[in-house]
């Protein structure tokens, strides 16, 4: 997980979004450049020159609100990148357990294949000696062929899981020759007990916090839109008129007059966007509580199942194998019965590995559900809409 957070290139690209949001924040706190106007007319031997330097009064008045909205967008961008980090970390953890389990399963599939190969060879020789039927020999051959196919699929699964982990860690060149543990971690002594899990998720999930900030930004923008529904442009600045015999100084005022557009459409748009964000925030909260409950249920079920395999099924299969070995030594069963029992024992061990893998995946999903990485996060589209509600002139 640490390697992935440092080397994953997609995550590194997400970090750049913080720089973009920070640049927008700095830009929102700066005045726009003034506009300079120049006019020169001449006729009948006389001329007149007008010069004007105009500043946007509207931007100065609305700058505090616009800066606040941009700061909220910057904070939401930080939450989005944090959620992306948690998501990559969770996916890397899942890929790690999948790769270790797939690698561990190969050893047992190899044992099944070796057992099937021995049984097929023995069946061939006994058939050649006339002590075995063609049907029983064909069954042993079919089992061996199936074991070879299962081993090939297991090796391909292990290779795919390893490559998935390699991609998430962002490894390149010689770094891809990393070594994985031989076995999955042991089950914890007891499952985690979560108290007030839903309330904790409401406080800690990043997607919920991002939705709240989105709603706050839209509320601020709605207030800005209502405040500027009639006046959308107000520019003022010094002006100078130069005539042949005099230079006149004063100021110029430019005001947009609301004759055709009284701002009703912008107000309605802002209110609809606000209600949309409010409903999405409520939806996020409902989904978060449900996801935590579902993830914890899966976690407890996976733990109980993995412990059942560890404490019940695998020890029972070992006891049966020991008894069959004694019976084989006493010539009470044949070699084919002993090989069949060995295959069943290996199948039980493989099922136990799968159950342990499912537990650790469920553990990763539970952690992701608690911090919001399971659901991911919507990008700060809502806040971007909030910045654009009033249009370019509104800022």
Structure description:
It contains 9 helices and 4 strands, in the order H-H-E-E-H-H-H-H-E-E-H-H-H. The longest helix has 72 residues. A hairpin with a 4-residue loop joins strand 3 and strand 4. The two termini are 42 Å apart. The chain is α+β, with helices and mostly antiparallel strands and 395 residues long. The protein has a 4-stranded antiparallel β-sheet with strand order 1-2-3-4. The chain is elongated. It has a single domain, classed as Outer membrane efflux proteins (OEP). Helix 3 packs antiparallel against helix 4 and helix 6 runs antiparallel to helix 7. Helix content is 70%, strand content 10%.
Number of domains: 1
Radius of gyration (Å): 36 Å
Let me know the number of strands. 4
CATH homologous superfamily descriptor: Outer membrane efflux proteins (OEP)
> Which descriptor suits the 3D outline?
elongated
User: How large is the count of helical segments?
Assistant: 9
Q: Roughly what is the average pLDDT, rounded to an integer?
A: 78
Spans with pLDDT under 50 lasting ≥5 residues?
A: 375-395
Beta-strand proportion: 5-15%
What name does CATH use for the topology? Answer: Outer membrane efflux proteins (OEP)
* Most strands sheet: 4 strands, antiparallel
How does CATH name the architecture? Up-down Bundle
Q: What class, by secondary structure content? A: alpha+beta
What percent of the residues sit in helical stretches (DSSP H or I)? 55-70%
Record the strand order, biggest sheet.
1-2-3-4
- Report the order of strands and helices: HHEEHHHHEEHHH
Q: For the terminal residues, how far apart are their CA atoms?
A: 42 Å
CATH class: Mainly Alpha
């Amino acid at each position: 997980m640490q390697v992935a957070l440092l080397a994953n290139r997609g995550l590194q690209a997400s970090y750049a979004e913080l720089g973009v949001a920070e640049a927008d924040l700095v830009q929102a706190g700066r005045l726009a450049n003034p506009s300079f106007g120049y006019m020169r007319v001449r006729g009948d031997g006389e001329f007149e020159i007008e010069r004007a330097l105009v500043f946007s009064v509207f931007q100065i008045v609305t700058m505090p609100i616009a800066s606040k909205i941009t700061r909220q967008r910057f904070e939401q961008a930080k939450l989005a990148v944090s959620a992306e980090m948690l998501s990559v970390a969770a996916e890397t953890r899942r890929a790690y357990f999948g790769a270790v389990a797939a690698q561990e399963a190969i050893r047992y599939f190899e044992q099944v294949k070796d057992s099937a190969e021995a049984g097929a060879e023995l069946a061939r020789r006994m058939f050649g000696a006339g002590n075995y039927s063609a049907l029983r020999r064909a069954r042993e051959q079919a089992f061996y062929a199936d074991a070879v196919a299962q081993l090939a699929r297991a090796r391909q699964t292990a290779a795919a899981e390893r490559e998935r982990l390699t991609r998430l860690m962002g490894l390149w060149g010689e770094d891809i020759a990393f070594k994985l543990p031989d076995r999955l971690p042991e089950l914890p002594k007891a499952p985690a007990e979560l108290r007030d899990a839903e309330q904790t998720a409401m406080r800690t999930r990043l997607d919920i916090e991002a939705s709240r900030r989105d709603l706050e930004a839209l509320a601020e923008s709605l207030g800005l839109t209502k405040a500027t529904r009639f006046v959308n442009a107000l520019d003022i600045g010094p002006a100078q008129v130069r005539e042949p015999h005099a230079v006149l100084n004063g100021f110029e005022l430019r005001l947009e007059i609301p004759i055709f557009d009284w701002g009703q459409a912008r107000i309605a748009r802002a209110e609809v966007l606000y209600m949309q964000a409010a409903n999405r925030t409520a939806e996020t909260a409902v989904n978060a509580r449900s996801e935590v409950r579902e993830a914890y249920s899966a976690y407890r079920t996976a733990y109980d199942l993995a412990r059942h395999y560890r404490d019940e099924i695998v020890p029972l299969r070992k006891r049966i194998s020991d008894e069959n070995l004694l019976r084989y030594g006493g010539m009470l069963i044949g070699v084919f019965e002993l090989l069949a029992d060995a295959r069943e024992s290996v199948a039980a061990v493989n099922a136990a590995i799968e159950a342990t893998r499912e537990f650790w995946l469920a553990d990763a999903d539970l952690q992701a559900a608690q911090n919001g990485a399971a659901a991911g996060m919507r990008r700060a589209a809502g806040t971007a809409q909030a910045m654009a509600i009033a249009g370019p002139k509104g800022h």
